[in-house]
Batch of 4 targets.
Target 1
Amino acid sequence: MMNSRKGTLPLLKELHKTGRRGPQVPVSGLEDRPVSEILPKEFLREEPLSMPELSEVEVVRHFVNLSNLNYGVDNGFYPLGSCTMKYNPKINEEVAAWFQDIHPALPEGRVQALLELLYTFQQDLLEITGMDAITLQPAAGAHGELTSLLMAKAYFKDHGLLEKDTVIIPDSAHGTNPASATMAGFKVVTVKSDEEGLVDLEQLKTLVDDHTAVFMLTNPNTLGKFEKNILDIAQLIHGVGGLMYCDGANLNGMLGWARPGDMGFDFVHLNLHKTFSTPHGGGGPGSGPVAVKKALEPYLPKPVLVKAEDEDGSYHWDYDRPRSIGKVRSNFGNILVALKALAYIKSLGGAGLREVGTMAVLNANYMRVAMEDTLPTAYPGLCKHEYVATAEEVKKRYGVKAQDIAKRLLDKGFHAPTMYFPLIVKEALMIEPTETETKENLDAFVQAIREIVEEAATNPDAVLSAPHDTPVRRLDEVKANKELKVRW
Amino acid sequence: MRYVPHTKEEIKAMLEAVGLRNVDELFSDIPTEALLKRHLQVEGGWDEEQLRAYFRKAASGIPDANSAVYFLGGGVYDHYVPSAVDKIIALPEFYTAYTPYQAEISQGTLQAMFEYQSLICELTGMEVANGSLYDGASAAAEAVLMVMRINGKRRVVVSECVHPDIIEVLRTYQLGQDFEILTLPQKEGLTDLSELEDLSNVSCLVMQNPNYYGFLESMNQASELIHKAGGLFVAAVDPLSLGILKSPHEYGADVVVGEGQSLGNHMSCGGPHFGFFATKMDYIRYMPGRMAGQTVDVDGRVGYVLTLQTREQHIRREKATSNITSNHWLMALASAVYLSLMGGSLPELGQTILNRSTYLAQKLASVGYPLWQRQYFFKEFPIKAHDAEAVQEALADSGYYVGPVIDEHTLLVAVTEKRTKEHMDKLIELMEGLR
């Protein structure tokens, strides 16, 4: 938990004392010969290895004290928009750990019980998304995007549609969308948002042509709006032989209520670390399974997990996939993350998953309305799991920017919302409460925002110089970029 | 089981505040045709005891490293994980946080990332490292893409002795980019470098040491040849070998990547692990992925931030150096804790692994399982067997696991610091009995 400690800690290197050791190297029962008697000199290290030498207790204290400088979901409200920082149930960690000492190369016959869990998980995700086939390989959402776009590439090549070279992406999209499109070798065309914060359908019509390969759409979008023209959009894209891709980062906003597969999407990636409650780990590991419609199944990364149709119904990794794009990473995926997500799904079931979607949307709308008179929503009206407030008026009046408000929130014990995203909203604060927060927490956050906006009028310096009560205060990013000290 | 805290009264009050009569109205913006008109057919709604029973039943039948004896390799290994590593990465302030976007309340993650980067640099001898990538294979693919951005050449040479996943992932990434992949054949278990001499316009050479078979490559010679051909040298290494083996800096590698699992991470059925990525300072602006940098706050106190973010997708969008955002930080943090605990012992660790694997290889040869090729190795080596799969299956029945199988007559055997003389003698006895 956050404490009043000021500043960071001495580096591990500064704690070094030559000859100090941590845990003992496991004994073998053999007499070890010197390395130089076994291997020729040309293979051996000559430069001295300069690692910090420390005792176990020093290492433990160092990292425990570092953790005290952090803030996680278990510390308090973390309304970081687009990241779905819901509670990470502890039981998921416990049961997944029972699988942590399994080697991926065990013969298939010895891991049928594990494969059955993964198969069940895949079937559940297909039901949740309304899709036909799935891969668990991608390591994160962005990796799922890349995987999908490479599949699209293979699909068009296979169908002789070499003119399909363009991906259309809304201006409100996550930066990963255009970055993934570039990595997959597509040209990127941007479609703008209309006055409601939705894809500008009229402009989209002018952009769509025979070159259109994929339309990447986040739905609900990053403004928290459901793209209500989705069926028309899908018809338009399919009309020129293009594919509809759903960035599933915001699935929490329609979980159990609507499915990408029922609204014209051909593929979708899921963020298990968002919708399905697996921990974000300070930046990962995530997991980004990709679910697809039948037409794209042949292109899934290999191996694909299949169930034999014979009576023993055994499970196999199928490598005989001639049209597969190949592997996108080692082994089979972030399996332990998948098992945590499976535990989450099994704890909820169909009805529980729908309740998650409902309460995520209720919480967001409740906060949106409550904040309307202090920090209004950029695009008013019903939202899904999140909404984007704008501090433009506060900035104009008092010179206090979105970032200043965010920093002042840290003093009040909250994590800040996502700032300055999506790029189409000035002074944006993107707020996603998630379903696991109580009404009291939502009220307290709204009250904190109210106090900060009042303070901006009466004592702007207190906001402009925030945060005051954190382990360090505002950091010099320009210096960090210019002087580039990225190691000791 | 439910994780939503709302009482019925609260739901009513909140709906009223929003001006809605019921929860259905929260979804009135979804076209009727797209609405799901039934509950999801997903079994569940279980309590914690039901969850435990379900997962325990599945786990209990699988021979994991606690119930079986692993000599399994091929990129994932049953290494010793100190107890303190698991305890540290289970601290909620670390594992329930996300990307350190609010630096002032993320100094724990950011300082640890700075320290992780420093430790990877010390270990590899390189000048700069990022805050991790997904795994060793995708890190190798990112390295190749980076080198092509640096020198603009589109011809990549890869040894056939690298982990097959590296080549496969690279070929997958190639679908999106215009470049050529040439491979150098395997000869007697090592990379045949002779073809490299005739190549021109090469962007980079990708080698692995120890290679997929566990054998030690002539990294010095490879480095010299690729540099003479005007390309850069990408080395994939086992980080745990660097306590005794030549560091990539010593043979002049330009980019160093690898699978980080051996540094304090569990095997986890193959993931999540992490990929590390290190290079020279000259190339820092071409690097993929997040990086922590040291700076000061307004009061002059030392602090850390994410730095050089202008390379990244959330700012640069289609012109970013990579699409990566979430990395595998928690696994990299485990490695930082591991290296803090064991860093001083890495030479001893390397020595004992080398001694154990040498002992086992010699004994196995004496009972009829010779090395596939007579080359030097570190912890893993391929042996010849009449029927590799049959050997693997027969040993599995006794709770001993070797592999993966390379082909009908060859299989890999890996020896970590967890394998004692007793384990090895039992394996030898079992295998002798199979002859």
Target 2
Amino acid sequence: MDTNKVISLDGVTVELGGRVIFNNVSFAVEKGEFVAVLGPNGAGKTTLLKLLLGLLKPTKGDVRVLGAVPHRGDGNIGYAPQHRVLETDLALRARDVVGFGLDGNKWGIGFGSRKRDALIDAALKEVDAYRFANAPIGHLSGGEQQRLLIAQALITDPKILLLDEPLSNLDINHAQEIIALLTEIAKHRGVTIMLVSHDINPLLPAANRVLYFARGHSAMGTPDEVVTSATLSRLYDTKVEVIRSGGHVFVVGAEI
Amino acid sequence: MFSIFQYSFIQNAFLAGTVVAIVGGFVGYFLVTRGLTFAGEALSHIGFAGAAAALFVGIDPIVGLLTFTIIAGIAIGIFGKDLREEDINIGIVMTLALGLGALFISLYNGYAEQAYSILFGTILGISHTDVLVTLIFGIGTIAILVAIFRPLLFSSADPEVAEARGVPVRALGILFLVLVAVAVSMSVQVVGVLLIFTLLVGPAATAIRLVHNPLGAVSISIALALAYTWLGIFLAATGSWPVTFYIATISFLVYLPVRLLTART
């Protein structure tokens, strides 16, 4: 087995409620890669993350994460689902949210310890969130909350980071800050990142490869290989034009 | 004035009241934060039907209360996938329960006093058996809440990540509603069906506005519930107005300034 392969899908088909989400999808991701997962709504981006987390089983085919069949509660995977407003009624501080990543799944009340505080502080510093460590989450902006969710996902020191739409609800400057942060983390920790997005542009400088889903099929490669008129037209089965201008990519004729 | 404590009915009231307040303050925190206050209200009305049915067949009302609310709690947990969207369904079931309660009370042919005490509470008349039942169920509820505290908090704040991390989110949700059912049944004895919010929601809602960390909020919620209950029983025992009136009024008088002085984000 190729030891550099962190994630691999081999001929995977997923049907949910009689609807085919994936049809015979195969690809592999290597250690330390930053993969942007793109495609229209309902194309299976979130389904892919659920497969990798072991929350869904493939109807057909083989899914491997770090050489094993995915299972729930795998500490090797850090996960931040699609951005949502965190429950403000819970009277949570920023550090409480990060703490969930550490021991939220353990039984008992958990009164904390110096060691626990130190781990949380370190995680908060890594995502530049230490300055609002004790602020109630209801007082934090979308970008600040996103940093907390990344810190929460990172605190178990995972080998893989799965992020579902971390950039939605962020303006372009904040999106670029988050991407710069993730690039740094990927390099520094050697962690593999799969990031679901509906916009390729902020990811162009960061993503090593792009995984593009449409109509149950996928295409994988460098942004230059995949985000082209020819590849996307084949994926969508309709005429799609990719226009590159001033370092930006525009997809015309299809919902990205 | 402290001579009232020599009466066994006062001792019983304080003992049961203390356990009920701790359970109410603790469960209330999660009830409020999970947005389930309406389900709590519905369970109390279903409990009314249970208590009335128990009276009708001639058994202790607490048995009917516990049976009906626990079954209803499990049913809500299983069938109400997103409870916030099930409010109309809960409302309709709740009114059916009230209707059934009215029927049982009229069939019972007993004293209207019994119906009154289910609706408004009867802590000063609590029986020795009820104190015992309250103690057992109360300690059990607190023990379970302590055991599931972190995963329940995690799954309340972020069910998706909690599930991915291996927390049995759905099972915890159902278990929590069973605990709510027990808390409601116990609280009915103190404040009655109609005033369930004063113990289950009032202290927790106030606490959440005062502090921003889960353990602190739970502690303050329990402390407030205890203070309201003790003060209410004490005032009622020395005065002549009902306990329920005192507890509800204190709960309101504390919540009002807190609500007005703390800005919500």
Target 3
Amino acid sequence: MTDDAPSFDAHRCENGHLTYPGHTRCPDCGAEQTETVDLSDRTGAVVTWTTSTATPPGVREPNHLAIVEFTVDGESVRALGQLTTADGVDIGDDVEPVYAAELREPGAGIREPDSQAWDGFRFEPA
Amino acid sequence: MDRVAIIGASMTQFGDRDAWVRALLAEAGDAALDDAGVDGDDVDHLYVSNMASGEFEGQTGVPNALAHDLNALPAYTQRVDQTSASGGAGIYAAWQSVASGASDLTVLVGGEKMTHKTTGEATDVIASLTHPVEYKHGVTLPSFAGLTARKYLDEYDAPRESLGKVAVKNHRNGMDNPHAQFRKEVDLETVLESPVVADPLRLYDFCPITDGSAGLVFCPESVAQEYTDDYVVVSGVGGATDTHVVHEREDPTTMGGVVESSNVAYEMADRGPEDVDVAELHDMFTILEFLQSEDLGFFEKGEGWKAVEEGVTDRDGDLPINTSGGLKSKGHPLGASGVAQAYEIYQQLLGDAGARQVDAEVGLACNVGGFGNCVTTTILEQP
């Protein structure tokens, strides 16, 4: 992966606690989060998943979603993300992050388009 | 310590209403004042529970508008927004105002106007409470429910049908609630064959989009009898938060805010879950009734579904849950829901619940905001 490839950053404090996304103070111990860990080339496991059919403006329909758990140096961290497909997906399955430039249409919903990023990582069954 | 009493309560018709938020709030506020037998200009503090009147209809500043409409000037006013738990948070604020001595008479009115929006638009307004890393994936509150329901069914080996039975029970209760949005019985087959909304959950696992309002009137218990003999006491109230980012919770099937807020409320009331005779839980999704009934300590973790299967939570069971019909059949006008939960408990404790009446001296209401992000638990008792 090149230096300008998008990263999927979890945030770590000096006590080794890992969160996605980052927080001003570590939710576990209150310490400052001082480094990031890129999850984009790692494999995670599906904690649970759903297919949402009643989606808001600007969101694909159906929208397959999963909570995925990664383990980094013995510390686990979870992320919610779209699934590229729900076919055959089950709890415990391995998935890999795949970059998407636009996960939903900015500005179609109520959130101010400039207030946040709209790119990110979907999960693809490994 | 002088406790806080509720001396009046009201609720408007819930459903698809022509009225906008100001008129809905005024309707419930007016009726609550009448029920308590007090005048608008007796009111010291006026709280309005509302999540999103600005986003839904472009009307902000509703507490001041309501004070003017109810002839309550110059009452202190404040809007309480804690998303879907705005009503419960309003009860907390109203209780604080009287318990602290800052107010001798407080009115709380919760309300929301939603049905003029499409389902997608209303869902998006509610989903705007999520973190940017959640929102960009198009997550909705119903999809959190789908994610959690799948995990729960898998983890505790619960049958899908048990979730459907929550909907069947609450619709049956709602048949006898004249204010409910749906007064229609549904059978299990209808629930299980309704369209998928967030797999494994289907249409009938979700509450509707609703307009409505509800009100409560509070004063110190020591003077309650100067107003009325028919009053109840707020014996315990607690509020707590859980992670904003839902996937960061260690156990997706536990709502920490329910556990923490109920511990505070139980301790204040010197009560435990075994003392509760009737409860109103936040069944925005059927799965939430299981999670709350466990996290409030009514049942062991992973066993809430069995209580529904065995009829324990039916109106004639040992612990009736959602005798009002719950959010599921009564409807869920966001800011009104927590207030309307207390209205049902108030009616049950006073013996005014008509066909829905159960034998109850102690009642509990649990109001959940976000997907358990912020929660209030209130315990009401006969004096």
Target 4
Amino acid sequence: MSETTNQAFAEHSIALTLNGQPRQLNVQPWATLLDVLREQLDLVGTKKGCDHGQCGACTVLRDGKRVNACLTLAIMCDGAELTTIEGLADGDTLHPMQQAFIKHDAFQCGYCTPGQICSAVGLANEGRAQTPDQIKELMSGNLCRCGAYTNILAAVEEALPQSATQALTDGGIDA
Amino acid sequence: MNPFHYSKPVDVSQAISLAGAASRFIAGGTNLLDLMKENIARPEHLIDITGLPLKDVSETANGGLMIGALVSNADLAWHPLVEQRYPLLSQAILAGASPQLRNMASTGGNLLQRTRCYYFYDSAVPCNKREPGSGCPAKDGLNRIHAILGASDDCVATHPSDMCVALAALDAVVHVEGRGGKRTIEFADFHRLPEDAPQRDNQLADDELITAIELPPKGFVAHSHYLKIRDRASYAFALVSVAAALELDGDIIRDVRLALGGVAHKPWRNKAVEQSLIGQPVSRENFVAAAEAMLRDAKPLEHNAFKVKLAQRAIVRALSDAATGGNA
């Protein structure tokens, strides 16, 4: 828990774990996690679609839970463990969900894909989807303007059992 | 968004001491940051409350639940005690937003969501809720999604929450704390009708923080149902929603709760209508009569007259599904 800070529009120093690496960052209070990832850290896999939490293209994992990076202030990620699309593979071995998206050709233009994959891994961590209908409902926060939903569903359905990166427990949001 | 100061207090009293007219508390941020990006909310100071100890769900002495204001919507919907004892609340939460947003959004913040009226969100046009006294283009504009009950000349906006419709039906109590101390607010009194001050959505003072939501023991486990009608199958705000809960003795109604979403500036209840069902048998005729009574005072606008019939039919269906064990 950080101390109260109230300096005039100051940059703040935060410490977090990003794709397994500890990072120390200076961020302005109003910088979103999405903009910091893309502009400050050159992690451009996370996409800016609507920038209003409606399309899911910016989905990343925060402490194993899927969140919209566009509606997250970076300054509020102090102490968090973040995983972006760049952090899912193990070296040259793709994450099972990435492999399944390739196998099922679960994209056309590919712009929504990093968000779809991170969201599907978050779905696996939640452990709540068993049927195709449940997968569809619980993937509804990720839009695909190309309409590749049929293949996305096939990929998610196949890879879901192997895709959890961490078990989630109840207990509110993590500060 | 505009530049702002940022603070992260470590306890409730510190958070309250920092609060003022130009500050906002931030937890999930899902609505507030969106409004800040649209330049509709322009706080000078964000008070990050995610470090406060308000993250527990615990049983109360009388058999109810106390839900910390920072419990996420997802954690609340999937909390074992909520799933077992308040399935209506679980169902309503899961009908709203997206999984990502539910992971982020807090219980307290859900109550403080602002309307999704197009005109409120469009800073190029007047809006009494955004700029008091400037006018209401929705009244004579594109008002398909707007209110049919409890609106005023100044505002026809609706409250967007699903969770709040269930909390209204369950007679939840809002616990708040401000510089003047702690107080509780009955859920039915928490949100306001627009009247001539639509800029005020609820009864909170600037320095008051929601600390918890209390659920009374009665969860209507056997007979409740949340029905949400929207323009697509998922991830859309309600045109009309119904939280229906029944306590039955055989087929006689011993207690009933009925709350509507998507039709007014706050979750809509009518206790006289609920009272009229008590002692009556479960029947389509009785449900139809209740549905008609719920909408008797409806004043539809040019484009939302369909909501009256839609709400009536949704009420009948939700009550019928509840009677046959909607969540079982």
